[in-house]
Amino acid sequence: MATIFAVSSGRPPAAIAVIRCSGPQAFIAATKLAGTLPRPRRASLRSLHDGEGRMLDSALVLCFPGPASATGEDLVEFHCHGGRAVVAAVERALAAQPGLRLAEPGEFTRRALENGRIDLLEAEGLADLLSAETEAQRIAAMAAAEGRLSARTRDWLDAVALLSARVEVLLDYAEEADVADDADVIDAIIADMAKLRSAIVAALAAPSVERLRDGIRIVIAGPPNAGKSTLLNLLAERDAAIVSPISGTTRDRIEAPVVRAGLPVVLIDTAGLIETNDPVEAIGVDRARDALLSADVLLWLGDDSPPRNDAIRVHARRDEHGRRETPHTADIAISAREPETIAALWQLVTARAKALLATSDDVPAMHEHQRRRCEAAAAALGGVTRDPLIVAENLAHARRILSQLLGIDATEAMLDALFGRFCLGK
What we know:
The protein contains 14 helices and 12 strands. By secondary structure, the chain is of the alpha/beta class. It has 3 domains: about 110 residues, Gyrase A, domain 2; about 100 residues; about 140 residues, Rossmann fold. The strands form 2 sheets. A 6-stranded mixed beta sheet has the order 3-4-5-2-1-6. A hairpin with a 6-residue loop joins β1 and β2. It is flat.
């Protein structure tokens, strides 16, 4: 296996650049650059030289013997000055040594997976952590990267293995056991399968990773000139939509992504809901109706009843003549001239969003493909048959599915797709 190297601290220029080197030739390569290496896991200052003896930089060098390293292999880190020329010179000196090459994207983490330092769920969590843009995404990714989702899956896998063993004992000694006793044993196994299935189904109650990434869709809807575009701009704190007193100014959906209280939110302005013979305006109205039906949170600015019972009824323009009295049916009254009313609306919306994206350490978020595997495992555990042979096969199927979650049966195509999301030094 080749020894790989790459910058793991981001591309220069920077104050410090960390260059990692992992593989069977890592210590030999580091010795050629730095001379005598420091003791394992102890940072020491060394002068780095190329193959012709020219000094490249003064750097801190750390050595991590495998298998107790991040990759499970011998690993060396060079903490160099972060200038482009310095990094390029050190990389050239490493590349000039036999058996060394530049790492591919995600190759360090892939080797950690292949060497048993992490499992597939932890690797996917790490990929999510590197791409996290909001606090909610970071928390969910940390739960996976730190192994909480892996621990939960291993518990399920252990429980399935134990149930499988109990069924195998029943099958092996079926001729020696009493029929009534067999019935009691299989009933107990089926009951335990049902409990395990319930635990897996409960874990699926958490929002998916994709849901945390895409965010909550907040649709602003109502009749023309109700103040929808003005409200969008106030909530987004920028001029995302054109505002005018002319009816029908907004003819299509306008989306404005924002982050609020650590949560991703997409604000959506819609065309006014009216009956019209204008074909272009009619398209906008149809899209508005589609948007409000699929909204996670609907802000209804009409004075009539909203199309959904869970809508937040907003009494807009309460500072205008004839609208100063808030109807008893309204959930909140707002005015563009009163910032505190917009802040109060945000509090109401944020509470809804947090409820929809609620996560916990006990129920980590999963990707959609992980959720589908859990659903398949739960289905395998939910069979109604009392035939021990079929029960054994169902348990074996559940065991295979849970093993795939941990990467025990991962395919090369799956791994290539995952680690392609990583940078070179990760």
